[in-house]
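User: structure tokens for this one?
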Amino acid sequence: MIHRKFMRTRQLKPGMRVDHPVSDRLGRVLVARGATLDEYIIDAMLKMGIMSVYIQEITDDDENEPISPAAQKNIDRLRTNDRAKVSLSASVRERVAEGIQYVYSNTEDPAFVQATDSIADTLMSAIQENDAMAIDISALKTSDEYTFKHSVDVATISMIVAKKMGMTDEEIHEIGVAGLLHDVGKTKIPPEILNKPSRLNDAEFEIMRQHSVYSYRIIQNNADLSEEVKLGVLQHHEKINGAGYPMGVIGQKISPYAKILAVADIYDALVTERPYKSAFSQREAIEMIMSMTQELDLFAMESFLQSMILYPVDSIVELSNGEKAKVVKNSPYYILRPTVVGLTSGKVYDLGEDLSCASIIIL
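Assistant:
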């Protein structure tokens, strides 16, 4: 059972979970409810003057659920490590955070493109270091400011998706650059609209919609960026059915980079808590992405879904038949339906392949 406990920020330890959104004085969410703390986040909160928070104190921990001998035997037999995920060390996260803040604060300086290149190089190295093929965005935590964090999240997700799609290293690097720069035009949006702690009205939203055009104008004459990067930035809100913006183009008229950025951008926005909306769970966001077949490129969508790990191996889940189970194997083709083992019965539920399990879902 989860209880709320009040703690001084200086008493926090890595691994603790926040039980309420931590916001700044403008109402911007810095740390989402349920986020797992690490030394970087704790230090950032102290620097921001946040001296106390509520954390989740867990009793009767799911991880200590009793496991029957039959269940343990099947768990040991079937357990398969998840695909390698992108991992950023604390020092790398700090370097990336400083870099992205410099980029967004110095768009008039020609060197900001070189700084973006350097960040993309860092992300590329993190992907190549363990041949990462999957991503867990909750583990990135590159910044406390939404626009910066969102840009790095979109870049990293997009790079993994591009890798899954078989793109070259140069293309993967370029789409990372496009992801980092896709929202740089927000620096031209009036602060009272950009930081408004409630939903935008129609007039304000029309101004906000111009950010992709502003982003494009900032980079359009830069000879160090390819046309594909520039188009990706300009078109990341376009939809294949023509319902997007700023131009309302369809299908083949949308840059391949933009098609990938669109999926990553929507997903990250859905799972991020904002002052005017609660975050959707990862499962809810995945289901919403799955429903957007008329708006998102199918190849990019499928590659994205195959790159996400929703229920990591060893996590405990509750099944719709009332049994608790441990995840022992994930399939990139059944992101919502891993193979699990009932903790009491020891029964193996292959939720993705076994038709006899078709009526069972993870709650």
